[in-house]
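Two records follow; treat each independently.
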Amino acid sequence: QIRLVESGGDLVQPGGSLTLSCAASGFTSEGYAIAWFRQVPGQEREAVSCITGATHDTWYQDSVKGRFTISRDRAKNMVFLQMDSLQPEDSAVYHCATNLVRRCLVREAMDYWGRGTLVTVSS
């Protein structure tokens, strides 16, 4: 079965760093776009970053540009989100998701979601 599982969320201080992992199973994720979303309860879900299939082009929301980096490990069938210079407004549940297409279409509905990992940025 197709599955995405996030890990790596933690409590960090402002200015700190975390690396989130998205482990894919049931399919070869390298051929498809994987996106990271975040959501705070009561607020709108926001697309944060995306990496395309095959060519591995990347996209970032303006609010995280220059601070976050998305990448893949083909052998491990995983996608990562390196988060630096974290700020309190980055606190959210972070989900990885895919709709099994090559291009990053973050405004479209995703077919497969992980259950999320919690990131809390606080002093």
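The next record belongs to a different protein.
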Amino acid sequence: QVQLVESGGGLVQPGGSLRLTCVPSESIFNFAAMGWYRQAPGKQRELAAIITIGGSTTYTDVVKGRFTISRDNAKNTVYLQMNSLKPEDTAVYYCNANLMDWSRAYWGQGTQVTVSS
């Protein structure tokens, strides 16, 4: 069983930046896709960004141009560089990783991102 360990969340002022990192507890599997979902207070979880093993990326519209997702395939590590943060970005961010055969998705415990003055 793979555990995903997230880090990099915290409190930041509007316009600031954070970089999230997600590292599997063990590098046993390659993942077809890794990414980040987020859940804001009172809202359902939504996709923030995802990247495939081939480097194809998908972003939710409201973060395009501000967030950049990347991954290190050798380490099965995924990053989310978040720039120009807005209060609306405040959420718990969850790492997600899918096996190569898409048979299972793993989730991290979540890391809190708070954007506030």
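Discussion point: The chain has a mean pLDDT of 94. How would you locate this feature using only the token line?
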